[in-house]
TrEMBL record:
InterPro entries: Acyl_CoA_acyltransferase (IPR016181), Ankyrin_rpt-contain_sf (IPR036770), GNAT_dom (IPR000182). Residues 39-85 are annotated as: Disordered. Residues 115-273 form the N-acetyltransferase domain. This is N-acetyltransferase domain-containing protein. Residues 51-69 have a biased composition (Polar residues). GO terms for molecular function: acyltransferase activity, transferring groups other than amino-acyl groups. It comes from Coniella lustricola.
Length: 642
């Protein structure tokens, strides 16, 4: 009808149909896999028989429709006007190189005028879990921030968001966020005249409907924001109003804050605790503290010197002593910046042990004050150290994060000294020890009584240095779960490879265990000897046994310790290990193979076979930050080629 206003047309489109075809969830595959596991796959229809119903249809009468997957989820996109956009957008997939990422675009159109846009990304987490941080860092700043702020390097929710007494927030989220695809909603923009009309809600719901049939399970994540360009500069009240409106909008859709982070999550499961949490009970950011403005400038000058690495410790201490009065009831002691950091927070985060000691000795209560992230000064220091351990931003590129966990070499002595002050525990000066001495001292299991206390301090300090959180790491970095995984692998490979020496001829053995594993640290001449000499192959395999013995005795599996273990075994005959080592064979070749196999069998970044076989034993061992840090542990043991 001429002159009649058209209805708002909501268009949801995928940039790449080919990615969808590869990645989308096929419910029939579940039944095929189940039948295959039961040995009944031969009873199914022939591939070419299109008259047969899929396996899932055979059980349709016994399966109820889930309320979380409404019928509209399967509607044809043309009903929402997608055809006019899909061809253009599909040809313009700027993320084409990322097979695990599917760009989803939402548009609301009325009379050819765009009223709202929504940009989202469906991230197939299982495809990238082995290198989650590295992969997520590349596409956009938002994917990078999500990866580093909320998840660990293997795409699992950081434990602090469900274990920490404060950072767990409302406590409705947990390790269930470790699994499933991720729907990252990056942008939602609605024209001012169409706000509070339900248009934003409708476009987000349409995107959720689009995603539901594409995946077995997913979580939607958003970090609510607002258009800062619409708020006059300096208008803090309007800014807070806009933030509150944004939070209210996402909460009205069922999103709830993850711990104390800036991220809000949504899951389809209506029985999940997040859906039972009222909006008014969700966690809000703490209010900003009001301080005497006349004190803020001197406070800023005092803390600025702490962050300049070239300013000597003594000069920093003098500056802080000048700023803080003798009376600890004075307001200057409790001053905090916009992030809630007190002077003790700043001293700790910048690893200034003399300043930390000065403040702590005079006002120990400051050690209990939490910043806006919920961190005490000790926790703020630990968070800063963890951030530096995990990733780093190159100079001049603050939005770029480079993963550095694999090359971690430990925290500085100044940082350890600060931790010692804040925990009131003795810390040893590791700079006075060589790495060999530190390793040897940490491995002593039957120490003389008069040395026990000193050795305990050294072990404790080594664990602080290398980020151990279980209090049991050998050498400070080899955790109980990592040790157990390596031990299982060493014993298994020794038994398996030794049997293969008899079962296969020399060419088969070379293919299965040398080319396949890509043995490193061996010269071409040694590889040729492995091919032609059974004694050399036996020596290589026996190295696995000595690595297992090191681990069983709670010793680090370094080349020196493995060689020492071999020297203790004077009964080996024929002397295949000595022959292997004297002819150029290395401990590293076998050790690297074991680390690679252990990583491949892990649940975090491999096939999960280790957990399937030894789940109960693993659960009985303490968890640690150093679990699954295969390359870091390998490097620390001297095997940098992993």
């Amino acid at each position: 009808m001429t002159g009649q206003k058209q209805a708002v047309d909501i268009c949801i489109s995928l940039r790449s149909s080919s990615k969808a075809a590869k990645n989308d969830y096929d419910p029939d595959s579940d039944w095929r896999n189940m039948l295959k596991a039961l040995g009944l796959d031969h009873m199914g229809p022939d591939r070419g028989d299109s008259s047969q119903e899929p396996a899932s249809a055979l059980l349709a009468n016994n399966v109820s429709t889930s309320p979380n997957f409404p019928a509209s989820a399967g509607e044809d996109d043309s009903e929402h006007g997608q055809d006019s956009f899909s061809d253009v957008l599909s040809a313009d997939d700027e993320f084409a190189e990322f097979e695990w990422l599917e760009q989803i675009d939402g548009r609301a159109i009325e009379d050819k005028k765009q009223l709202a846009v929504c940009s989202a990304k469906l991230i197939r987490r299982d495809h990238i879990k082995a290198g989650f941080w590295e992969e997520m860092e590349e596409p956009t700043q938002e994917t990078s921030q999500l990866a580093f702020e909320l998840f660990d390097r293997y795409g699992r929710l950081k434990p602090k968001f469900y274990e920490h007494e404060f950072k767990r927030g409302t406590g409705v989220w947990g390790s269930e966020l470790d699994d499933g695809d991720i729907l990252l909603i990056e942008v939602l923009c609605v024209a001012p005249e169409k706000r509070r009309t339900g248009l934003g809600t409708e476009i987000v719901q349409k995107i959720l409907e689009k995603v539901r049939p594409k995946t077995r399970r997913f979580i939607a994540l958003v970090s609510p924001g607002f258009l800062s360009s619409e708020v006059p500069e300096g208008d803090d009240d309007e800014k807070q109003h806009q933030i509150a409106a944004s939070l209210q909008f996402w909460r009205s859709l069922g999103f709830r804050r993850v711990g104390t982070s800036s991220w809000f999550a949504f899951v389809n499961d209506l029985d999940h605790p997040s859906h039972k949490l009222a909006i008014c009970d969700d966690l809000d950011d703490p209010p900003h503290m009001k301080h005497d403005s006349s004190l803020l400038e001197p406070f800023k000058e005092a803390i600025d010197c702490l962050s300049h690495l070239r300013v000597p410790q003594e000069q920093c201490l003098l500056k802080i002593q000048e700023f803080l009065p003798d009376d600890t009831d004075d307001a200057r002691w409790m001053l905090a910046d916009e992030s809630g950091h007190t002077v003790l927070h700043h001293a700790a985060m910048n690893s200034r042990p003399e300043v930390v000691n000065f403040i702590f000795c005079r006002c120990a209560d400051l050690a209990k004050v939490r910043n806006r992230e919920g961190n005490t000064p000790l926790e703020a220091l630990q968070a800063r150290l963890e951030s530096k351990r995990s990733a780093d931003s190159p100079a001049g590129l603050p939005n770029l994060s480079l993963v550095r966990s694999d090359n971690f070499t430990g925290f500085s002595q100044c940082s350890l000294a600060c931790i010692g002050v804040l925990t009131d525990k003795a810390v040893f000066d590791l700079d006075s020890l060589s790495s060999e001495d530190a390793s040897a001292l940490s491995a002593i299991t039957k120490e003389p009584a008069h040395l026990r206390d000193s050795l305990d301090v050294i072990r404790h300090t080594l664990r602080l240095k290398y980020g151990c959180t279980c209090g049991e790491c050998i050498g400070g970095f080899l955790s109980p779960r990592m040790k157990f995984a390596l031990l299982c692998q060493a014993e298994t490979q020794y038994e398996t490879l030794y049997q293969e020496l008899s079962a296969f001829d020399k060419s088969d053995w070379l293919f299965e265990n040398m080319l396949l594993c890509n043995l490193k640290c061996l010269t071409p001449a040694v590889k040729q000897s492995l091919k032609t000499s059974k004694s050399m192959r036996q020596g290589f395999v026996t190295i696995c046994k000595y690595i297992a013995e090191c681990l069983s005795r709670k010793k680090l599996p370094t080349a020196k310790n493995v060689r020492d273990m071999h020297q203790l075994n004077t009964s080996e005959w024929p002397p295949v290990t000595r022959n292997y080592l004297e002819r150029g064979g290395t401990v590293a070749a076998a050790a690297i193979m074991l680390f690679q196999f252990t990583r491949g069998d892990s649940a975090s970044c491999g096939n999960g076979q280790h957990e399937e076989m030894f789940g109960d034993e693993i659960q009985a061992l303490a968890k640690c930050r150093n679990d699954d840090e295969f390359k870091f542990v390998g490097n620390m043991c001297g095997f940098k080629e992993i």
